Amino acid sequence: MGQRERMNCATNDWEAAPWDASDEIADRQLRGFRERSAKAVRWTAVRDLPSHERDLFWKISPDVVYFAEHDGEQLLLLQLAWHGFPDPPEWGLASRAIGGEATRWSEWGYFAHLPEAWVVPEPPSPT
């Protein structure tokens, strides 16, 4: 499926970032997402980090909810406040090399379902 079909599909489980990315960018992001989604990543809730670390992630995006380091990468898992067609799917993924604080985060698109290989803590129950 090309990017034009992906961005105009209400039942899409994965979407490029940005939604109107070229086929080349979207295909690269989808390959990167599939590669990372097959790994057994153990995520940490950002809310459980010390405040100085938590604030660094929330400066990147208020949607960052989980962080992990795996296979030489730092990974961010975003949970979008606004999601579902016509908005992107609920989850987003970004990564950069460990120690690459001056490096931009690479985006791997948005997706509707968390990969089965990932270990993600349960969200807190509403009070």
What kind of oligomer do you see? single chain
Q: Beta-strand level of the residues, as a percent range?
A: 15-25%
For the biggest sheet, the summary is: 6 strands, antiparallel
For the largest sheet, list the strands in their spatial order: 1-6-5-4-3-2
Mean pLDDT: 87
Distance between the termini: 42 Å
Number of helices: 3
List segments where confidence is low: pLDDT < 50 over at least 5 consecutive residues: none
Q: How many domains comprise the coordinates?
A: 1
Give the helices and strands as they follow along the chain. HEHEHEEEE
Secondary-structure class:
alpha+beta
What gross morphology would you assign? Answer: globular
Radius of gyration over alpha carbons? Answer: 15 Å
The count of β-strands is 6
- Helical proportion? 10-25%
